[in-house]
Amino acid sequence: MPHSNPSPTLPDLFNTPVIAGLTSYAAFLDPSEERALIRAIDDARLTPFRFQQWTGKRLTRSYGPSYDFQTGRLDPADPVPDWLRPFADRAADICGLPRASIEQALLIRYDPGAGIGWHKDRPAYEHVIGLSLGAPATMRLRRRDGAGWQRRTLELVPRGLYRLSGEARHMWEHSIAGVGERRYAVTLRSLAGDMIPTRSTETRP
Questions:
Q1: Is there a contact between 134 and 38 (Cβ–Cβ < 8 Å)?
Q2: Residue 5 lies in a domain
Q3: Count of structural domains within the chain
Q4: What is the CATH number for 150?
Q5: How many CB atoms lie within 10 A of CB 109?
Q6: Is the pLDDT of residue 30 over 90?
Q7: Of 10 and 31, more confident
Q8: Residue 121 contacts by C-beta under 8 Å, 6 or more apart in sequence?
Q9: What pTM was estimated for this model as a whole?
């Protein structure tokens, strides 16, 4: 896919990734499945994403063990719902992971202008799989290289899937550029090692 950024982009299939551990698959969903998932996400009582005292532009809802940015712990949440589980199972199959390993899901709605800043997923999680719905978006990746950065980009096409593992998961940061049109995403994660969610006993206001 042509792109003005001189950094190379990844192919549309699980082969020859530019970054070890970052792979993509362009045709994970068909259009009817995409529409059904978008309807289900809109019906899922999304709320603004919160990081400590900051509120983001995107709307989210988590299922399964979820990282609490206020306490720094994994908290239990409602399990991955029945309507989402078949897609999580199919994603696990494509990525060569046990279906039961996908224990956490995050629904996201990006309204125009919303994106995600530079970050790595929390160490409590291991494999990260993303499903893209609605408008396309650009994932940017960077890694320290002396005084500068190595940079790559991946175009997130509607109905596609990407996976972060290994080097791409642990050594590279990623971000999502602000979108021009409404976009939806589902992030599926496995837990790292023997991580067990524990409900905080702290009293919150």
A1: yes
A2: no
A3: 1
A4: 2.60.120.590
A5: 22
A6: yes
A7: 31
A8: 128, 164, 169, 189
A9: 0.82
Residue 104 CA to residue 64 CA, distance in Å, equals 4
Whether residue 198 lies inside any domain: the answer is no
Q: Which domain holds residue 139?
A: 22-191
pLDDT tens per residue, range 33-89 = 999 999 999 999 999 866 555 666 789 999 987 766 555 566 777 899 999 999 999
Q: In angstroms, rounded to a whole number, what is the distance separating the alpha carbons of residues 34 and 185?
A: 10
CB-based burial, 112-132: b 16+ in 10 Å, e otherwise:
eebbbeeeebeebbbbbbbbb
User: Cα separation of 65 and 124, whole Å?
Assistant: 9
What DSSP element (H or E) covers 166?
A: helix 166-170
Q: Is residue 199 part of a domain?
A: no
Judged against a pLDDT cut of 60, whether residue 172 lies above it is answered with yes
**Residue 3, domain member (yes or no):** no
Q: Which helix (H) or strand (E) holds 141?
A: strand 137-145
Q: Using an 8 Å Cβ cutoff, are 154 and 141 in contact?
A: yes
